[in-house]
Please model this.
Amino acid sequence: MRLLFDIGATKTRLATIEDGKTFGEPLVIPTESDFEAGMAAFAAAAKKLIKTGRAEFAVGGAAGPFDRDKTTMVNAPNFPNWRRRPLKQRLEDIAQAPVFLENDAALAGVGEWAYGAGRGHGIVAYLTVSTGVGGARITNGAIDASAQGFEPGHHIIEAKTRLTFEAAVSGSAVERRFGVKPQTISDAGLWEELAEKLAVGIHNAIVFWSPDVVILGGSMILGDPAIPLDRTEAHLAALPQIFPELPKIEKAALGDFSVLYGALALANR
Model:
């Protein structure tokens, strides 16, 4: 049995591969802000899924950049108590098996390439806009090589204020600004503003990564209400263009389980 997992900023999802082709019903638990509490909750959930007590191996993602050996998160903006903690070792102790770690957004991109909106495309630029903003460039199903991972949410889109892409369009940024969850806000003007800022980030991803398709996931894209894709595309088309045509812009197809699908794709290799 192989274990798949997704340690997100607010929720952790676990599932097992039963037949080598897909995964069973995922188990979803809250992501604890405290590392030790998070590991205890993960262990309890894994025990429910791994009936034998141990897995063949485990593959999954977590919401943060890793060290070069992918053993610990060197930064964890959404749950700082997890920073520099022995994540891989603790997960291997729980699974009693080797663990393969990746950034969660990068794995989601692999999942969309293999099973979702990226099928049939060679180069995918995947961006998730949720509590934070993450993403990666996927080429023929592989996460592009990098020295320290990909963090597109932290590129700066306004020089004077040093406003980052994440601080402009993420759910946590909107909540800090208005004091309520984004999905409780019906003001069309706000969503139009977010569409314009999202277009800037997408434009930059296109000129940095030159993809065949840009896939957008996360609650700020797939929720209700959400940043309107048609208005985002209109703002994107109005920006100065260096390439003769824009790539396709697609919504992610795999919803909350895109990271698990990415882990499945890697596990089946």
